[in-house]
Amino acid sequence: MVTNRRALSPAKSLLLLTLLAVGLALVYMTVQLRGNISYILLHRSQVLLTMLLVAFACGLSTLLFQTVTQNRILTPAVMGLESLFVLLQTLLIYWLDLSGLSDIGTSGRFVLEAGLLMLFATLLYRWLFSSGWLDLHRVLLIGLVCGTLFRSSAGLMQRLMSPGEFALLQSRIFATFTRASGPILALCSLVIAMVALIIWRLRHRLDVLALGPTQATVLGLAWRRNITLLLLLSALLVAISTALVGPMMFLGLLVVNLAYALPGSWRHSYLLPGCVLIGMIMLTGGQLLLERGLGMEGTLSVLIEFAGGLLFIWLLLTKGAK
Question: Is the distance from CB of 176 to CB of 245 less than 8 angstroms?
Fold first, then answer.
């Protein structure tokens, strides 16, 4: 007798994802542990915490953005934030030079970058949703125009740099999980924990907002006020993730689309933890593969961007064909 029921319930799927994520984290912390053990454990714990924060930020920001837009293709990264990050890094190094960067410090530069990214994202998102109607082609076009403008401006500034400044810039515009310091990780952990708590308390409201503006309004939710709050939270998460490790354009797209499929539920009570767990599994497993399997022949961000780019093209073609 054939049944159409799922083999695993959403709760059991989340349990398996949790066990896999914890197992990969333990393997990463303990594999080939020899030599200066205390230093190695400290370094690996910082890398692991960075990956956890990025998994939180990228997964939750993309899920919030897709819930508001009711579209599984759009992500906050498509709107040109990564290109803006490169432009900001270029301007900081060009205007302040190497001595100026040391004066403001690592924490000051991080706060400045995150603040400017959040300001841009908030203004852009609020303008796009001011009319109450979202056109997919319009949003993609605006994101493309903004990204092209930022990249062109950054390219012009880079041609005017000295070789030393350009070398420093190249080390900062590629995503890496080993760059963040302890104080920055502590600050990001505090902010992301507060944002995650707010989002978790809104999880049932997100289920209603996912139905669309008309249905949400009929069911008693203030659509404009709620999406403004969600866009602010999404912008804050994207700004923190980008300023923390660098551009990760397609990580959120991969994580959220897998979260839709694996837990097998549309409820945000399952989607929210599913996004974080899948992101952690992808980052930790990918880092283990690069370090232990490929001997660091490549970077994790390149692999994720390649896979995410293919998924984005496939989604764009399949959604456009419908």
Answer: yes
pTM confidence score: 0.81
Positive or negative, the CA dihedral 112, 144, 57, 267 is: positive
Spatial CB neighbours of 209, under 8 Å, sequence gap ≥ 6: 67, 68, 216, 221, 223, 226, 227, 230
Task: Note the pLDDT tens digit of each residue in 252-284.
Answer: 888 888 888 887 778 899 999 999 999 999 888
Report H helices in the chain.
10-30, 37-69, 81-128, 136-159, 163-170, 182-201, 203-209, 213-218, 223-245, 251-261, 268-288, 300-321
| Tokens standing for residue 185 | 């990780």
Cα 28 to chain centroid distance, Å, stands at 22
| Distance (Å, whole) CA 76 – CA 220 | 27
Give me the torsion for CA of 218, 220, 225, 227, rounded to 10°. Answer: -60
